[in-house]
Description:
The complex is a heterodimer.
Chain A: E1 2-5, E2 8-10, E3 14-16, E4 28-32, H1 33-45, E5 50-54, E6 72-77, H2 84-93, E7 101-106, H3 113-119, E8 123-126, H4 132-140, H5 156-159
Parallel strand pairs in A: 3-4, 4-5, 5-6, 6-7, 7-8
Antiparallel strand pairs in A: 1-2, 1-8
Chain B: H1 11-32, H2 38-46, E1 50-52, E2 57-61, E3 67-69, H3 70-83, E4 87-90, E5 96-101, H4 106-115, E6 132-133, H5 148-158, E7 173-176, E8 190-196, E9 202-208, E10 220-227, H6 231-245, H7 256-263, H8 265-282, H9 289-298, H10 316-325, E11 326-328, E12 334-339, E13 350-352, H11 353-366, E14 370-373, E15 379-385, H12 389-398, E16 413-414, H13 429-438, H14 442-448, E17 453-456, E18 470-477, E19 480-487, E20 499-500, E21 505-506, H15 510-524, H16 531-538, H17 540-547, H18 554-557
Parallel strand pairs in B: 6-7, 7-8, 16-17, 17-18
Antiparallel strand pairs in B: 1-2, 2-5, 3-14, 4-5, 4-13, 8-9, 9-10, 11-12, 12-15, 14-15, 18-19, 19-20, 19-21
Amino acid sequence: xxxxxxxxxxxxxxxxxPDDAPLPESGGAIVSLTRFRRDRDILLARNSPxxxxxxxxxxxxxxxxxxxxxxxxxxxxxxxxxxxxxxWARMLRTRLGxxxxxRAVGDFLYDQINYQRRVGFDAWEVPDHFTLEQFRRALTExxxxxxxxxxxxxxxxxxxxx
Amino acid sequence: xxxxxxxxxxxxxxxxxxxxVAQFRGxxxxxxxxxxxxxxFKPLRLMNGLYLQLHAYMLRIAVPYGTLASRQMRKxxxxxxxxxxxxxxxxxxxxxQFHWIKLVDVPDxxxxxxxxxxxCIQTSGNCVRNVTADPFAGATPxxxxxxxxxxxxxxxxxxxxxxxxxLARKFKIAVGATPHDRAALQWHDMCVEVVRNAQGxxxxxxxxxxxMGRTPYIAHMMSDFVEREDIxxxxxxxxxxxxxxxxxxxxxKQRIKILINAIGPEEMRERVVxxxxxxxxxxxxxxxxxxxxxxxxxxxxxxxxTLADDMPSGDxxxxxxxxxxVHRHKAPGYAIATISLKAIxxxxxxxxxxxxxxxxxxMDEFSLGEVRVSHEQNLxxxxxxxxxxxxxxxxxxxxxxxxxxxxxxxxIIACPGLDYCDxxxxxxIPIAQTIAKRFADLDRxxxxxxxxxxxxxxxxxxxxxxxxxxxxxxxxxxxVEFYQLLLGGSGAEDASVxxxxxxxxxxxxxxxxxxxxxxxxxxxxxxxxxxxxxxRRLGMEPFKNIAYQxxxxxxxxx
Lengths: 162, 558
């Protein structure tokens, strides 16, 4: 897997840590909500960025005020058909005011990237064969949008001058 | 050619649909090249209305809120001829389906549709589907205002909504504005009714959680009054709660009706209000008055001529048609005319390319270029001069579309059934045809009065059997088709869920059972009672006894 943020492939500054594995000495760590709840104090005291990976069934509201202390939230698509993470990302960017990285992980399709970006995702874990050209095309297939979302794009209504 | 008062694409709408066509063209290329598996392609094609059925691909074209212009009708005729077998099928969601489509042709068909401001966006898949409306909108004297501007606003807001294109299940919205419900509002995942509050202000009543399928429910009221400018925020709030909280572990339990009935309407309202308040505070979804006015202007009432009411008379055939198919219009001297697509012995909702072209001519000559599709699978000429009715009737006779049965027992809703659909357990069309033939005598139909028969070939209920005064559900029992009888359903303002009488009837018994039930009703009804009223007064028992009299199918079920 490779990671896209902004408009480029980047080195992943985070390690995804299984629930039963020790935390890395240094560097960012992504843990499950279960692990975060268990080791919250240790994680937050580590002096390294912390990320939480949420299942599609886990609302970000479960994180409570800790959301503000996280650098990254990974939202999992267990199946590309499961669209709950679209609402979680939206909620993170609006209600919860989360400004860190929201990373799309799991089974999502090229055809969903544009929607993901609109609701607040800004990082994508993609298969190795996926190209930047595909990524850019996914974001530009549809020029305009009818409805406001967290991306702040002008809607067609606004472009019409209303 | 008349140019009807309906929404017209501007440059933004046109670009949106054109890009969507190009995008789908790319998806088809990727599928044909093997880059997409059928499993991955499926939700993408479904969001463009493309189904894989028993014999071929089926393409479902959106007819937003059932409104069609003549040039669009001619385009559908052209597509029927060029890409299908010369006919199409109007559905209970007011869409048009073509059942014999080739995958490679679909991008070209979408491009042809885009040229007349049509598309297939979200006519299938787990997203917000094509919005439906009262087919008499803008023409009936009953309405508070034309609900179609709101429907168009909903269409735009829900088109490729980034948060709601991968919902747990499909999501159907309908709008209405009259006390008399002609759009089966309460059976939708969400419905919006234009209402006036005690202060005389116009706003919207929103209900949610209706639906057919294997667990039928009537919608629950969510808010009895939402201010105009807040309506999109409210609808978004409902969808957000649904997207976040719906089950995802069992496809049969993922509609919003299941969620609402699991947590209760009170809890649902609370969750919706929480989202709604937040959306209102953000303000981004607030509808400016100017935008509402701009959209409403497209649907402004046409310049009706100053006429006096003067309903023409004619021979018995015309009078019969007038009695069933002609309805009161809001403008003096005008009428609303239903074109029945339920010719006795034909497939409900089917229309040939030649008929489509002929209807387009009638639209131009007599109805200000416009026609409506009703959820009962008929067409409606919304604005005709009363004095033109004899000429219209004659022209309809010439193309076999003058069946005088709107709202009568032979005006049957039926899904395509096992003849086309790979979900079906049993055929629907032949049953509809047999029953229609049985009751073909028009005097008898009028004596029976309003009686809505609705037939589905499987539990998915595309033929609305739960909402039929008499509903018929096809089931498969060890390879044999059986038909369950349901009574007492309604898709109107008095919405109710039909009750299953008992064991199914065989293919050759169901029409007899229906006839026994209908004859019994005629015998015991009180003055002015519709079938539904009599059933509600007497309850199931006497009808059950009659239906199973001479019960041969007992042998099958014993």
